[in-house]
Amino acid sequence: MKIDKIRYIIGTFLLVSIMALGFYKPVKEYLEIPLQLTLFEGQDFTVQSSLPVTTTTHNANFAFSSAVENKQISVAANESGEGEMMVELAGIPVKKVNVNVLSDFKVIPGGQSIGVKLNTLGVLVVGHHQIETADGKKSPGEIAGVEVGDIIKEINGKKIEKMSDVGPFVQESGKTGEPLNLVIVRDNEDIKAKLMPLKDKNDEAYRIGLYIRDSAAGIGTMTFYHPETKKYGALGHVISDMDTKEPIVVSDGQIVRSTVTSIEKGSNGDPGEKLARFSADKEIIGNIKRNSPFGIFGELNKQVNNGIMDKPLPIALSHQVKPGPAKILTVVEDDKVEEFDIEIVSAVPQKIPATKGMVVKITDKRLLEKTGGIVQGMSGSPIIQDGKLIGAVTHVFVNDPTSGYGVHIEWMLSEAGIDIYKKEQKKAS
Asked: Which residue out of 49, 66, 214, 237 is catalytically annotated?
Protein backbone atom coordinates (compact mmCIF):
# COMPACT_ATOMS: atom_id res chain seq x y z
CA MET A 1 0.00 0.00 0.00
CA LYS A 2 2.86 2.35 0.82
CA ILE A 3 4.43 1.78 -2.64
CA ASP A 4 1.06 2.48 -4.34
CA LYS A 5 0.74 5.72 -2.38
CA ILE A 6 4.23 6.82 -3.45
CA ARG A 7 3.40 6.00 -7.08
CA TYR A 8 0.19 8.00 -6.79
CA ILE A 9 2.04 11.03 -5.38
CA ILE A 10 4.74 10.84 -8.07
CA GLY A 11 2.12 10.43 -10.82
CA THR A 12 0.14 13.39 -9.56
CA PHE A 13 3.29 15.52 -9.38
CA LEU A 14 4.27 14.61 -12.95
CA LEU A 15 0.76 15.31 -14.25
CA VAL A 16 0.63 18.72 -12.60
CA SER A 17 4.14 19.49 -13.86
CA ILE A 18 3.24 18.58 -17.45
CA MET A 19 0.07 20.65 -17.30
CA ALA A 20 1.96 23.60 -15.88
CA LEU A 21 4.60 23.21 -18.59
CA GLY A 22 1.89 23.56 -21.19
CA PHE A 23 1.17 27.07 -19.89
CA TYR A 24 4.85 28.04 -19.96
CA LYS A 25 5.15 30.65 -22.71
CA PRO A 26 8.23 29.28 -24.56
CA VAL A 27 6.65 25.79 -24.63
CA LYS A 28 3.39 27.17 -26.01
CA GLU A 29 5.31 29.06 -28.68
CA TYR A 30 7.29 25.95 -29.57
CA LEU A 31 4.08 23.95 -30.02
CA GLU A 32 2.66 26.64 -32.30
CA ILE A 33 5.48 26.11 -34.81
CA PRO A 34 3.94 23.66 -37.35
CA LEU A 35 5.71 20.56 -38.60
CA GLN A 36 4.19 21.14 -42.06
CA LEU A 37 3.68 24.58 -43.56
CA THR A 38 1.95 25.27 -46.90
CA LEU A 39 1.96 28.78 -48.38
CA PHE A 40 1.14 30.39 -51.70
CA GLU A 41 3.69 32.50 -53.58
CA GLY A 42 3.91 35.95 -52.01
CA GLN A 43 2.47 34.90 -48.64
CA ASP A 44 4.20 35.25 -45.25
CA PHE A 45 3.96 33.24 -42.06
CA THR A 46 5.02 34.43 -38.59
CA VAL A 47 5.06 32.90 -35.12
CA GLN A 48 6.25 34.32 -31.81
CA SER A 49 9.41 33.01 -30.13
CA SER A 50 10.68 34.51 -26.88
CA LEU A 51 13.67 32.12 -26.91
CA PRO A 52 16.86 33.16 -28.75
CA VAL A 53 16.35 30.76 -31.69
CA THR A 54 17.77 30.93 -35.20
CA THR A 55 16.62 29.30 -38.45
CA THR A 56 18.37 27.67 -41.39
CA THR A 57 16.85 26.46 -44.67
CA HIS A 58 17.71 23.25 -46.52
CA ASN A 59 16.96 22.15 -50.11
CA ALA A 60 14.78 25.21 -50.57
CA ASN A 61 16.56 26.79 -53.57
CA PHE A 62 14.60 30.03 -53.94
CA ALA A 63 11.22 28.68 -52.80
CA PHE A 64 11.21 30.51 -49.46
CA SER A 65 13.37 32.39 -46.99
CA SER A 66 13.23 32.50 -43.20
CA ALA A 67 14.46 34.85 -40.51
CA VAL A 68 14.16 35.64 -36.80
CA GLU A 69 13.62 39.26 -35.83
CA ASN A 70 11.95 41.04 -32.89
CA LYS A 71 11.17 37.69 -31.25
CA GLN A 72 9.34 36.45 -34.35
CA ILE A 73 10.11 33.57 -36.69
CA SER A 74 9.04 34.57 -40.20
CA VAL A 75 8.81 32.60 -43.44
CA ALA A 76 8.42 34.38 -46.80
CA ALA A 77 7.15 32.32 -49.76
CA ASN A 78 8.94 33.36 -52.94
CA GLU A 79 8.20 30.84 -55.68
CA SER A 80 6.74 27.38 -56.20
CA GLY A 81 8.86 24.68 -54.57
CA GLU A 82 9.57 22.96 -51.29
CA GLY A 83 12.26 22.58 -48.66
CA GLU A 84 12.98 22.37 -44.94
CA MET A 85 13.41 25.00 -42.26
CA MET A 86 15.35 24.03 -39.14
CA VAL A 87 14.68 25.91 -35.92
CA GLU A 88 17.81 25.92 -33.75
CA LEU A 89 18.50 26.90 -30.14
CA ALA A 90 22.14 27.62 -29.29
CA GLY A 91 23.09 25.88 -32.56
CA ILE A 92 21.16 22.72 -31.64
CA PRO A 93 18.26 21.74 -33.96
CA VAL A 94 14.99 21.66 -31.97
CA LYS A 95 12.34 21.49 -34.70
CA LYS A 96 12.17 20.70 -38.43
CA VAL A 97 9.43 22.32 -40.54
CA ASN A 98 8.61 21.02 -44.01
CA VAL A 99 7.66 24.02 -46.17
CA ASN A 100 5.61 23.77 -49.38
CA VAL A 101 5.20 26.84 -51.57
CA LEU A 102 2.34 26.60 -54.08
CA SER A 103 1.93 28.59 -57.27
CA ASP A 104 -0.17 31.72 -56.93
CA PHE A 105 -3.83 30.71 -57.23
CA LYS A 106 -6.97 32.85 -57.48
CA VAL A 107 -10.69 32.39 -58.13
CA ILE A 108 -13.58 34.80 -58.56
CA PRO A 109 -15.98 34.76 -55.59
CA GLY A 110 -19.68 34.23 -56.26
CA GLY A 111 -22.63 35.27 -54.12
CA GLN A 112 -25.22 35.13 -56.91
CA SER A 113 -28.55 33.40 -56.32
CA ILE A 114 -28.85 30.44 -58.70
CA GLY A 115 -31.62 28.07 -59.69
CA VAL A 116 -30.65 24.41 -59.68
CA LYS A 117 -32.21 21.71 -61.87
CA LEU A 118 -30.97 18.14 -61.30
CA ASN A 119 -31.72 15.13 -63.47
CA THR A 120 -31.31 11.81 -61.68
CA LEU A 121 -29.44 8.79 -62.97
CA GLY A 122 -32.53 6.80 -63.96
CA VAL A 123 -35.76 7.35 -62.00
CA LEU A 124 -35.78 7.69 -58.23
CA VAL A 125 -38.23 5.68 -56.12
CA VAL A 126 -39.71 8.07 -53.56
CA GLY A 127 -42.55 5.91 -52.19
CA HIS A 128 -44.87 2.90 -52.49
CA HIS A 129 -48.57 3.01 -53.18
CA GLN A 130 -51.26 0.35 -52.94
CA ILE A 131 -53.21 -0.58 -56.07
CA GLU A 132 -56.88 -1.56 -55.87
CA THR A 133 -56.71 -4.97 -57.56
CA ALA A 134 -59.37 -7.63 -57.88
CA ASP A 135 -57.60 -9.45 -55.03
CA GLY A 136 -57.31 -6.45 -52.71
CA LYS A 137 -54.76 -3.69 -52.20
CA LYS A 138 -51.22 -4.55 -53.28
CA SER A 139 -47.98 -2.79 -54.28
CA PRO A 140 -46.11 -4.73 -57.00
CA GLY A 141 -42.98 -2.67 -56.34
CA GLU A 142 -43.00 -3.52 -52.64
CA ILE A 143 -43.64 -7.21 -53.45
CA ALA A 144 -40.62 -7.15 -55.81
CA GLY A 145 -38.40 -5.79 -53.02
CA VAL A 146 -37.92 -2.32 -54.50
CA GLU A 147 -37.15 0.16 -51.71
CA VAL A 148 -37.61 3.89 -51.27
CA GLY A 149 -34.38 5.55 -52.37
CA ASP A 150 -33.65 2.97 -55.07
CA ILE A 151 -32.87 4.22 -58.57
CA ILE A 152 -34.36 2.28 -61.50
CA LYS A 153 -31.79 2.60 -64.27
CA GLU A 154 -32.77 -0.25 -66.62
CA ILE A 155 -35.94 -2.12 -67.58
CA ASN A 156 -35.67 -5.19 -69.81
CA GLY A 157 -32.13 -4.21 -70.79
CA LYS A 158 -33.11 -0.68 -71.87
CA LYS A 159 -31.70 2.42 -70.18
CA ILE A 160 -34.26 4.49 -68.25
CA GLU A 161 -33.67 8.25 -68.25
CA LYS A 162 -37.05 9.79 -67.40
CA MET A 163 -40.44 8.86 -65.98
CA SER A 164 -42.10 8.69 -69.40
CA ASP A 165 -39.70 5.86 -70.33
CA VAL A 166 -41.35 3.57 -67.74
CA GLY A 167 -45.01 3.57 -68.85
CA PRO A 168 -44.73 1.62 -72.14
CA PHE A 169 -42.80 -1.20 -70.43
CA VAL A 170 -45.46 -1.46 -67.70
CA GLN A 171 -48.40 -1.74 -70.12
CA GLU A 172 -46.57 -4.21 -72.36
CA SER A 173 -45.73 -6.38 -69.35
CA GLY A 174 -49.36 -6.34 -68.23
CA LYS A 175 -50.55 -7.50 -71.62
CA THR A 176 -47.95 -10.28 -72.06
CA GLY A 177 -47.89 -11.42 -68.45
CA GLU A 178 -44.10 -11.27 -68.45
CA PRO A 179 -42.48 -9.56 -65.42
CA LEU A 180 -40.25 -6.52 -65.79
CA ASN A 181 -36.53 -7.19 -65.40
CA LEU A 182 -35.22 -4.24 -63.39
CA VAL A 183 -31.70 -3.09 -62.70
CA ILE A 184 -31.79 -0.81 -59.66
CA VAL A 185 -29.02 1.09 -57.90
CA ARG A 186 -28.94 0.82 -54.11
CA ASP A 187 -25.99 1.98 -51.98
CA ASN A 188 -23.89 2.34 -55.16
CA GLU A 189 -24.50 -1.30 -56.12
CA ASP A 190 -26.51 -2.72 -59.04
CA ILE A 191 -29.30 -5.06 -57.96
CA LYS A 192 -31.56 -7.10 -60.24
CA ALA A 193 -35.25 -7.55 -59.49
CA LYS A 194 -38.36 -8.90 -61.21
CA LEU A 195 -41.56 -6.87 -60.96
CA MET A 196 -44.98 -7.99 -62.19
CA PRO A 197 -47.35 -5.05 -62.77
CA LEU A 198 -50.93 -5.46 -61.51
CA LYS A 199 -54.18 -4.16 -63.00
CA ASP A 200 -55.96 -1.34 -61.18
CA LYS A 201 -59.64 -2.32 -61.14
CA ASN A 202 -60.72 1.32 -61.14
CA ASP A 203 -59.36 2.21 -64.59
CA GLU A 204 -58.16 -1.17 -65.94
CA ALA A 205 -54.56 0.17 -66.26
CA TYR A 206 -51.49 -1.75 -65.18
CA ARG A 207 -49.37 -0.18 -62.45
CA ILE A 208 -46.14 -0.90 -60.58
CA GLY A 209 -47.16 0.55 -57.20
CA LEU A 210 -44.23 2.99 -56.98
CA TYR A 211 -43.99 6.76 -56.79
CA ILE A 212 -41.05 7.82 -58.96
CA ARG A 213 -39.30 11.08 -59.83
CA ASP A 214 -36.69 11.95 -62.45
CA SER A 215 -35.66 15.49 -61.50
CA ALA A 216 -35.38 17.96 -58.66
CA ALA A 217 -35.16 21.74 -58.47
CA GLY A 218 -34.24 24.35 -55.91
CA ILE A 219 -32.16 27.45 -55.27
CA GLY A 220 -28.76 28.11 -53.73
CA THR A 221 -25.77 30.42 -53.93
CA MET A 222 -22.72 30.40 -56.21
CA THR A 223 -19.44 30.10 -54.28
CA PHE A 224 -16.66 30.53 -56.84
CA TYR A 225 -15.74 30.55 -60.52
CA HIS A 226 -12.31 29.63 -61.92
CA PRO A 227 -11.86 31.47 -65.25
CA GLU A 228 -8.98 29.32 -66.52
CA THR A 229 -10.98 26.08 -66.39
CA LYS A 230 -14.53 27.58 -66.40
CA LYS A 231 -15.27 25.37 -63.39
CA TYR A 232 -17.48 26.53 -60.55
CA GLY A 233 -18.62 25.38 -57.11
CA ALA A 234 -21.88 26.18 -55.32
CA LEU A 235 -24.05 25.34 -52.27
CA GLY A 236 -21.28 23.79 -50.14
CA HIS A 237 -23.40 20.75 -49.26
CA VAL A 238 -25.04 17.81 -50.99
CA ILE A 239 -28.54 18.07 -52.47
CA SER A 240 -30.77 15.36 -51.03
CA ASP A 241 -34.20 14.26 -52.18
CA MET A 242 -36.93 15.88 -50.09
CA ASP A 243 -38.82 12.58 -49.69
CA THR A 244 -36.10 9.95 -49.30
CA LYS A 245 -33.59 12.30 -47.58
CA GLU A 246 -30.91 10.49 -49.60
CA PRO A 247 -28.31 12.31 -51.76
CA ILE A 248 -29.49 12.60 -55.36
CA VAL A 249 -27.34 10.61 -57.80
CA VAL A 250 -26.91 13.04 -60.68
CA SER A 251 -27.04 12.13 -64.35
CA ASP A 252 -26.76 15.76 -65.36
CA GLY A 253 -28.26 19.10 -64.52
CA GLN A 254 -28.29 22.80 -65.21
CA ILE A 255 -27.99 26.04 -63.28
CA VAL A 256 -29.86 29.21 -64.20
CA ARG A 257 -30.03 32.67 -62.73
CA SER A 258 -32.63 33.21 -60.02
CA THR A 259 -34.23 36.21 -58.35
CA VAL A 260 -35.02 36.37 -54.62
CA THR A 261 -38.66 37.42 -54.22
CA SER A 262 -38.96 37.39 -50.42
CA ILE A 263 -37.43 36.07 -47.20
CA GLU A 264 -39.08 33.91 -44.58
CA LYS A 265 -37.22 35.04 -41.47
CA GLY A 266 -35.63 32.38 -39.28
CA SER A 267 -36.18 31.96 -35.56
CA ASN A 268 -35.09 29.50 -32.86
CA GLY A 269 -36.17 26.01 -33.90
CA ASP A 270 -37.46 27.23 -37.27
CA PRO A 271 -34.82 27.99 -39.93
CA GLY A 272 -35.86 30.64 -42.44
CA GLU A 273 -35.80 30.43 -46.22
CA LYS A 274 -35.09 32.51 -49.29
CA LEU A 275 -38.05 32.40 -51.66
CA ALA A 276 -36.91 32.80 -55.24
CA ARG A 277 -37.95 32.18 -58.81
CA PHE A 278 -35.91 31.22 -61.83
CA SER A 279 -35.14 34.27 -63.94
CA ALA A 280 -37.67 34.96 -66.70
CA ASP A 281 -35.30 34.17 -69.55
CA LYS A 282 -34.43 30.79 -67.95
CA GLU A 283 -31.03 31.06 -69.60
CA ILE A 284 -28.85 28.06 -68.72
CA ILE A 285 -25.56 29.47 -67.43
CA GLY A 286 -23.85 26.18 -66.60
CA ASN A 287 -24.09 22.44 -66.19
CA ILE A 288 -24.03 20.21 -63.12
CA LYS A 289 -21.64 17.27 -63.24
CA ARG A 290 -21.31 16.41 -59.58
CA ASN A 291 -23.48 16.48 -56.45
CA SER A 292 -21.23 15.78 -53.48
CA PRO A 293 -21.10 16.42 -49.71
CA PHE A 294 -19.20 19.63 -50.57
CA GLY A 295 -21.72 21.06 -53.03
CA ILE A 296 -22.58 20.97 -56.71
CA PHE A 297 -19.93 21.36 -59.38
CA GLY A 298 -19.64 21.74 -63.14
CA GLU A 299 -18.73 24.32 -65.75
CA LEU A 300 -20.19 27.70 -66.63
CA ASN A 301 -20.99 28.75 -70.20
CA LYS A 302 -19.66 32.22 -69.41
CA GLN A 303 -18.43 34.27 -66.50
CA VAL A 304 -21.23 35.64 -64.34
CA ASN A 305 -20.36 38.76 -62.37
CA ASN A 306 -21.56 39.61 -58.87
CA GLY A 307 -21.13 43.35 -59.35
CA ILE A 308 -19.10 44.06 -56.22
CA MET A 309 -16.13 41.67 -56.27
CA ASP A 310 -15.54 40.50 -59.83
CA LYS A 311 -11.75 40.25 -59.79
CA PRO A 312 -9.98 37.00 -58.81
CA LEU A 313 -9.08 36.68 -55.13
CA PRO A 314 -6.41 34.50 -53.50
CA ILE A 315 -7.63 31.64 -51.33
CA ALA A 316 -6.71 30.58 -47.81
CA LEU A 317 -6.04 26.97 -46.87
CA SER A 318 -7.74 25.52 -43.79
CA HIS A 319 -4.76 26.12 -41.49
CA GLN A 320 -4.67 29.78 -42.53
CA VAL A 321 -8.24 30.56 -41.45
CA LYS A 322 -8.38 32.33 -38.10
CA PRO A 323 -11.19 33.20 -35.67
CA GLY A 324 -12.26 36.79 -36.12
CA PRO A 325 -14.21 39.11 -38.43
CA ALA A 326 -15.03 38.11 -42.01
CA LYS A 327 -17.65 38.84 -44.68
CA ILE A 328 -20.07 36.86 -46.82
CA LEU A 329 -21.47 37.65 -50.25
CA THR A 330 -25.14 36.76 -50.79
CA VAL A 331 -28.46 37.97 -52.22
CA VAL A 332 -31.41 38.98 -50.03
CA GLU A 333 -33.35 41.04 -52.56
CA ASP A 334 -33.92 40.58 -56.31
CA ASP A 335 -30.58 39.54 -57.84
CA LYS A 336 -28.32 42.06 -56.08
CA VAL A 337 -25.23 40.55 -54.43
CA GLU A 338 -24.29 42.34 -51.21
CA GLU A 339 -21.53 42.11 -48.61
CA PHE A 340 -22.41 41.35 -44.96
CA ASP A 341 -20.37 41.09 -41.75
CA ILE A 342 -19.90 37.78 -39.96
CA GLU A 343 -17.59 36.35 -37.30
CA ILE A 344 -15.50 33.20 -37.64
CA VAL A 345 -16.17 31.70 -34.20
CA SER A 346 -13.83 28.75 -34.67
CA ALA A 347 -11.90 27.11 -37.51
CA VAL A 348 -10.49 23.59 -37.69
CA PRO A 349 -7.24 23.06 -39.67
CA GLN A 350 -8.15 19.93 -41.65
CA LYS A 351 -5.63 17.60 -43.26
CA ILE A 352 -8.31 15.55 -45.03
CA PRO A 353 -11.59 16.76 -46.57
CA ALA A 354 -14.43 17.29 -44.10
CA THR A 355 -17.61 19.31 -44.42
CA LYS A 356 -17.77 21.17 -41.10
CA GLY A 357 -14.55 23.16 -41.07
CA MET A 358 -15.63 26.29 -39.29
CA VAL A 359 -18.38 27.79 -37.15
CA VAL A 360 -19.67 31.18 -38.32
CA LYS A 361 -21.97 33.75 -36.76
CA ILE A 362 -23.89 36.49 -38.54
CA THR A 363 -23.12 39.87 -36.94
CA ASP A 364 -24.44 42.25 -39.61
CA LYS A 365 -27.43 44.11 -38.14
CA ARG A 366 -29.12 44.61 -41.49
CA LEU A 367 -28.84 40.95 -42.45
CA LEU A 368 -30.12 39.84 -39.04
CA GLU A 369 -33.07 42.20 -39.39
CA LYS A 370 -33.81 40.91 -42.88
CA THR A 371 -33.30 37.15 -42.43
CA GLY A 372 -32.80 36.42 -38.73
CA GLY A 373 -29.44 34.83 -39.61
CA ILE A 374 -28.59 31.95 -41.94
CA VAL A 375 -31.56 30.80 -44.03
CA GLN A 376 -32.12 28.08 -46.62
CA GLY A 377 -30.91 29.27 -50.01
CA MET A 378 -27.93 31.03 -48.42
CA SER A 379 -25.86 27.83 -48.62
CA GLY A 380 -22.81 28.42 -50.78
CA SER A 381 -22.44 32.09 -49.88
CA PRO A 382 -18.68 32.74 -50.15
CA ILE A 383 -16.78 33.73 -47.01
CA ILE A 384 -14.04 36.37 -47.37
CA GLN A 385 -11.39 36.99 -44.71
CA ASP A 386 -8.43 39.39 -45.06
CA GLY A 387 -9.00 39.67 -48.80
CA LYS A 388 -8.97 35.91 -49.33
CA LEU A 389 -11.74 33.44 -50.18
CA ILE A 390 -11.74 30.96 -47.31
CA GLY A 391 -14.91 28.91 -47.74
CA ALA A 392 -18.70 28.90 -47.91
CA VAL A 393 -21.67 28.93 -45.56
CA THR A 394 -23.30 25.47 -45.50
CA HIS A 395 -25.65 24.81 -42.57
CA VAL A 396 -27.62 26.72 -39.94
CA PHE A 397 -27.92 25.76 -36.28
CA VAL A 398 -31.63 25.00 -35.80
CA ASN A 399 -31.69 26.39 -32.26
CA ASP A 400 -29.61 29.46 -33.16
CA PRO A 401 -30.26 30.72 -36.71
CA THR A 402 -27.62 33.43 -36.33
CA SER A 403 -24.92 30.71 -36.41
CA GLY A 404 -23.97 27.74 -38.51
CA TYR A 405 -21.21 25.80 -40.24
CA GLY A 406 -18.91 26.63 -43.10
CA VAL A 407 -16.76 24.45 -45.37
CA HIS A 408 -13.14 25.26 -46.27
CA ILE A 409 -12.64 26.39 -49.87
CA GLU A 410 -9.79 23.96 -50.58
CA TRP A 411 -12.17 20.99 -50.32
CA MET A 412 -14.67 22.60 -52.69
CA LEU A 413 -11.89 23.28 -55.19
CA SER A 414 -10.78 19.66 -54.96
CA GLU A 415 -14.35 18.43 -55.58
CA ALA A 416 -14.55 20.72 -58.62
CA GLY A 417 -11.50 18.95 -60.05
CA ILE A 418 -9.16 21.90 -59.54
CA ASP A 419 -5.76 20.78 -58.22
CA ILE A 420 -4.11 23.72 -56.48
CA TYR A 421 -1.03 21.55 -55.78
CA LYS A 422 -0.47 20.47 -59.41
CA LYS A 423 1.91 23.16 -60.61
CA GLU A 424 3.99 22.98 -57.46
CA GLN A 425 4.32 19.20 -57.76
CA LYS A 426 5.38 19.40 -61.42
CA LYS A 427 8.04 21.94 -60.61
CA ALA A 428 9.35 20.01 -57.64
CA SER A 429 9.60 16.71 -59.54
From this structure: 237
